[in-house]
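[step 3/7] inverse_fold.run input=structure_tokens len=365
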């Protein structure tokens, strides 16, 4: 019942850890022979020996059972616009109480959030009860919640509790994710109140395996499953210089998008900036332009370019007549022109948007 874990030589792994509110029995795991456990939260499906941690360092085997050490162990909590996630077709103009923990189940060397994702969570950390998150949202006037900044799947047990309370109070619930949870985890999230998920597709099969240590087929499976379960889905592609910025990779991702989630699921091509252990120059604008044009030509109705303020790909256009419908400036809505019935004012085409438009700027005057 005593073990050492790299860099935490002072930490005793035993049942005494469970006295902390941030250490809770996990929900999805199975017991194996020899006091090992298999975590069933994400597709890594780590087999963890007694006293050991899973790959993501948020789950530990104590005495033959699996525990999360990040229940309410938050690295950040703040109100943020939904467009920043980015969600462009879900409760436009609204804000969501956004929270995160530490670490990740992927290994992307260019991680744009590495200060949170690349370190092990502190134990016990600072505990924030689920009720506190929901109260904070209500106090701020937020319309929903969002688990973001680091991989939300690692907050699985905690998100279930927050989502349940949030839904009771009429708030929506969202994930900004790499989409690597198991089917069981995704179904439980959906059943307790997840409304929308934004899934980061990091490249082709080979690229995701090489850089992120993951199987992109599982990511696309979840994107498709989420749609089938009635969740709102948007796909994000961070176009990384020297990784997935060539014509073939972009073409492959667009084809896969059409096949798995169809033409009405929004896709965002985001500009990468050098970060963490990856130092190639930022994505060339011509590459983003190419991806934008190709995706539209191939029939995706809602295509966006992100992290390039002032780019025409920040706006929503009518897929039928080309009319500019939602004008944005770097994730802020400047003009919203849809009719009450969410139609193009010029040709009447229905635009796929979930939830209501919230004009916070107007509320302030
Ligand atoms: S959440 Fe994923 S990476 Fe973390 S312990 Fe479970 S299976 Fe492993
Ligand atoms: Zn990452
Ligand atoms: Zn139109």
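[step 3/7] decode complete -> sequence:
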């Amino acid at each position: 019942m005593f073990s050492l874990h790299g860099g935490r030589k002072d930490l005793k792994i035993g049942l005494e850890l469970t006295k902390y509110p941030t250490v809770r029995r996990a929900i999805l795991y199975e017991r194996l022979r020899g006091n090992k456990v298999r975590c069933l939260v994400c597709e890594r499906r780590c087999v963890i020996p007694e006293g050991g941690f899973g790959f993501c360092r948020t789950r530990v085997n104590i005495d033959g059972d699996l525990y999360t050490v990040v229940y309410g162990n938050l690295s950040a909590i703040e109100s943020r616009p939904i467009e920043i996630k980015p969600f462009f077709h879900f409760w436009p103009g609204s804000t969501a109480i956004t929270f995160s923990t530490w670490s990740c189940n992927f290994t992307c060397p260019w991680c744009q959030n590495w200060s949170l994702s690349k370190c092990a969570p502190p134990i016990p950390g600072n505990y924030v009860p689920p009720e506190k998150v929901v109260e904070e949202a209500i106090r701020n006037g937020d319309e929903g919640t969002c688990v973001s900044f680091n991989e939300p799947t690692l907050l699985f047990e905690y998100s279930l509790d927050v989502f349940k309370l949030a839904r009771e109070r009429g708030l929506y619930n969202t994930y900004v994710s790499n989409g690597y949870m198991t089917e069981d985890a995704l179904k439980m999230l959906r059943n307790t109140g997840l409304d929308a998920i934004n899934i980061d597709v990091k490249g082709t099969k080979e690229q995701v395996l090489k850089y992120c240590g993951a199987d992109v087929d599982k990511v696309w499976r979840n994107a498709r499953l989420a749609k089938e379960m009635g969740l709102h889905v948007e796909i994000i592609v961070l176009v990384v210089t020297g990784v997935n910025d060539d014509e073939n990779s972009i073409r492959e991702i667009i084809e896969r998008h059409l096949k798995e989630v169809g033409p009405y699921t929004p896709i965002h091509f985001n500009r990468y900036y050098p970060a963490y252990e990856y130092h190639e120059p930022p994505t060339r604008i011509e590459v983003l332009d190419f991806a934008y044009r190709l995706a539209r030509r191939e029939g995706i109705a809602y295509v966006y370019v992100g992290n390039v303020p002032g780019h025409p790909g920040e706006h929503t256009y009518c897929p039928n007549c080309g009319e500019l419908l939602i004008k944005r400036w770097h994730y802020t809505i400047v003009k919203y022109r849809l009719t009450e019935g969410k139609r193009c004012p010029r040709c009447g085409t229905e635009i796929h948007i979930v939830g209501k438009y919230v004009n916070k700027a107007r509320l302030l005057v």
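[step 4/7] annotate
Residues 318, 320-321, 323, 344, 346-347, 349 surround zinc ion (ligand 3) (CB under 6 Å).
The first helix runs from residue 114 to 117.
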